Every structure is written in C-alpha cells, then in structure tokens.
Amino acid sequence: MSPGQIAALIAAGAFVLLVLLLAVPLIKLGRTLDEATVALRKAHENADPLFTGANTTLNHVNTQLERVDGITANARAVSGNVSALTSLFTATLGGPLVKAAALSYGVSKAVRARRRAAEEPGKHSRRGRKSRGGRR
User: Fold this and answer.
1) Is this entry keyworded Transmembrane (predicted)?
2) Which residues are CB-contacts of 136 (< 8 A; sequence separation ≥ 6)?
3) Helix (H) or strand (E) holding 87
4) Radius of gyration of the chain measured on its C-alpha atoms
5) What letter does residue 85 receive in the DSSP assignment?
6) Domain regions of the chain by residue span
C-alpha cells in the first residue's frame, strides 16, 4: 500500500465518521418536524369548532346590533316628536301661561300686603314713606 492509498483510506474513514456525526442531528431534526406537524394537525382539528362558535357568536351580535339600530332610530324619532311638541306648547301656551303666572303672583302679593295693612291699623301700607308728623 502506498502512502496515497493510506491517505485515501483515512479520508474515507473520516468522511464516514462525519456522515455518522451529522446523521444524528438530522434524525433528531426530522423527529422534531414530525412532532410539529402532528401538533399543527391537532391544533387545526381543534380550531374548527372554535371558529364555528366564534362565527355563531358574531351572527348573534350582528342580530342584536340591528335591533339596537332600530331602537335608536325609534328613540331619535320620539325625541324629535317631543321637541316639536315642546316647541308647539311653548309657542301656543308658554306666553299666556307666563303672563298668567305673573298676574297671579302680583295679585297674591297685593292681597298679602292688603291683609297686613288691615291687621295693623295705623300703619301705612307703603313702606319707606315718611309720616306727616315727622315721626314714625
């Protein structure tokens, strides 16, 4: 055997050893990828009922939102009607009611003043006026 053949045998042995050393991590990586594939498959199988439930929930929420939109539209119409009715009431009865309230206030104040004047003889019903004698 020549030195070149011995060197070729050593190189071939080193190459076999290198292939064996690299085969172990590759086998482990293959197992890891297999486990990841199984985990993804299980997650996909369990996700279908979850998405179905979420879709059902969203359909119910959309139905309720449509009802709320209807209620909001009705409330808007009612508030508009109340506003119009209030404006009409203010325009037709507001002015006369304010005048009637002012009149009743003035009459009640005059009646009270008159009663006080009747209960206290000798005193004038107007305040702040000086008596003729110079004294009060």
Assistant:
1) yes
2) 130
3) helix 3-89
4) 51
5) H
6) 1-91
